Amino acid sequence: MAGSSANDAFVAFERVQKSYDGETLVVKDLNLTMPKGEFLTMLGPSGSGKTTCLMMLAGFETATHGEILLDGKPINNIPPHKRGIGMVFQNYALFPHMTVAENLSFPLEVRKIGKSEREEKVRRALDMVQMGKFDGRRPAQLSGGQQQRIALARALVFEPELVLMDEPLGALDKQLRETLQFEITRLAHNLGITTVYVTHDQTEALTMSDRVAVFDDGRIQQLAPPDVLYEQPQNSFVAQFIGENNTMDGVVQEIKGDTCIVKLDGGEVIDAKPVNVSKPGERTRVSIRPERVEFNKDRLKPGAHTLKAEVMEFIYMGDIFRTRLRVAGNDEFIVKTRNAPDQVRLRPGQQIDIGWLPQDCRALDA
Ligand SMILES: Nc1ncnc2c1ncn2[C@@H]1O[C@H](COP(=O)(O)OP(=O)(O)O)[C@@H](O)[C@H]1O
Ligand SMILES: [Mg+2]
After folding, report:
1. Nearest CA to ligand 1 atom 6
2. Which pTM does this prediction carry?
3. Any idea which architecture 6-236 has in CATH?
């Protein structure tokens, strides 16, 4: 996957823009390349342009500007049904008057595949999603999860090289969603299918994807593997959108190499890693993950920075303790600590020192 360029890309968006009304751009200068076999998720809040991107790739919308390439060829003039793309949406969209087997057979008939081969492919696709016994049912006789399995089988039955999924699990309950998340990634990887998956659920994006493109306001804010997105957010939007995050506002005083000094608005001075700041005097929002903060004195590493904090709440959660602190005027500062035998227990009102490593504290845009 590393080193992929537009040349060996299977899917490429090049400077793509989209406006529906000729005025506002809902997709702004989108550049994205995907190698074959990748599972990429477009993650972002509602209205950030994810579905629009998927619709342009599928051919149901045209780009206002720029080009989309599939396997190196521009697809602007290829109609949707000739792009060889499988699709799954949130609202199943199975044909209600057809049986499960007929629903699956339909994309094969459209492609003029003979009867015996059709039956063989339908059977295999149904087995793949563990729905072999349901071939004679109509969609109304299936649960939501079963319908979505059939929709998935229908998208895969003609063995497309590219599958697009737009919030396919959005209507299902949590447990079913988790089961199907696992099944979808397993199928995609086993079949070597290139997948573009759209969701607004960050957990879903992190657990399923090879890479995640975080969308906001029609732009990709960051495109990276899940661990990089979480550990190394490049701006405040990504830091805040992915996972839980503590922030403190202040002004950059000095930048030297890979550390900077930040004076917080409450007067405290801390070290941080300059990520999205460029010069002294600039306002910044520093960002630190709850599990990177330590208050057990003997576990603080050399070089760790300490600050005074007041305990607001100390909550036992089984596997972890969740501590809410007041730090530098922010009383929503969260620390997560593993439930270990030597873990100190805290009481509300207690004054403690907390610490972290400067490289875990990222100075981002204010
Ligand atoms: N068919 C359409 N006509 C006009 N505006 C649209 C249409 N589809 C989407 N939009 C607008 O484009 C923006 C992006 O929408 P969309 O791509 O659906 O975002 P997302 O899938 O991230 O929620 C929104 O402001 C939405 O209202
Ligand atoms: Mg959408």
Report:
1. 20
2. 0.89
3. 3-Layer(aba) Sandwich (3.40)
